[in-house]
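Notebook, student rotation project (T.W.).
Task set for the rotation: take a protein with a known small-molecule partner, predict the structure of the complex, and write up what can be learned from the model alone. Partner molecule chosen: adenosine-5'-triphosphate. Sequence and SMILES entered below by T.W., checked by me.
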Amino acid sequence: MSAALELDGLKKSFGKTEIIRGVDLSIGKGERHAIIGPNGAGKSTLFNLITGRFPQTEGAIRLHGQDLAGKAPFQINRMGLSRSFQITNIFPKMTVFENVRCSLLWSMGYRYNFWSMVGRSRALTEGTDDILDQINLTARRNLPAGVLSYAEQRALEIGITIAGGADVIMLDEPTAGMSHSETDYIVDLIRTVTEGKTLVMVEHDMGVVFGLADQISVLVYGEIIATGTPEAVRANPKVQEAYLGEALEDH
Ligand SMILES: Nc1ncnc2c1ncn2[C@@H]1O[C@H](COP(=O)(O)OP(=O)(O)OP(=O)(O)O)[C@@H](O)[C@H]1O
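Predicted structure of the complex:
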């Protein structure tokens, strides 16, 4: 499996404090990879480095072999990496359809700017409806997004994240604040919409992590102490000691 994303000796300091302390990681194309670790380990910082929100202090990040140094988040997005936000990022007064179309328009405007307006608008509508179908929101198509339930809003946000056609999808705690049934619903949805794509997610819920991830990396105090399959990570004594012990017993 060739790498979709590679981190090489990655470091990040805020002032004098080194938060990411030398991370090497290779995430294969088509892999679903979860980054877990205790509070304050640096997961969000790592996420923000990969998506270009923070510049790294040292080391390299490569997306499909291309160095991301100095690239702005929108440029990284156009190179095929799309992220969701922990805080719901939808326009509440726009309809569900308009929210997805807005995201799709941006990417199509960029990729297919030679299309006629008519062709473009038809393709846009079809593409938007296809995404609504994938995220199970066809029945809610014409409602203002603000009236959706919390889980539906998160589903919509996942739709917005995938709308640009990125092949690397990054999700930050996609099931945060959800009930068990909402979590099951979103996990199924994530599995479906990321089929054939590379998924990188930061997630606290071990049920979600073990249900979705092919590979898990455990970040502790700014370093990855283990990467492997869920079974290997679960059985790793270093991981048990540093972090998972109790969190794992139920799964
Ligand atoms: N912009 C910043 N400036 C200074 N320090 C920061 C900044 N962002 C994060 N930190 C510090 O970096 C450390 C790691 O934070 P981060 O949010 O990346 O951890 P996390 O693993 O995502 O934690 P959680 O699981 O609680 O979300 C924390 O000590 C935090 O205070």
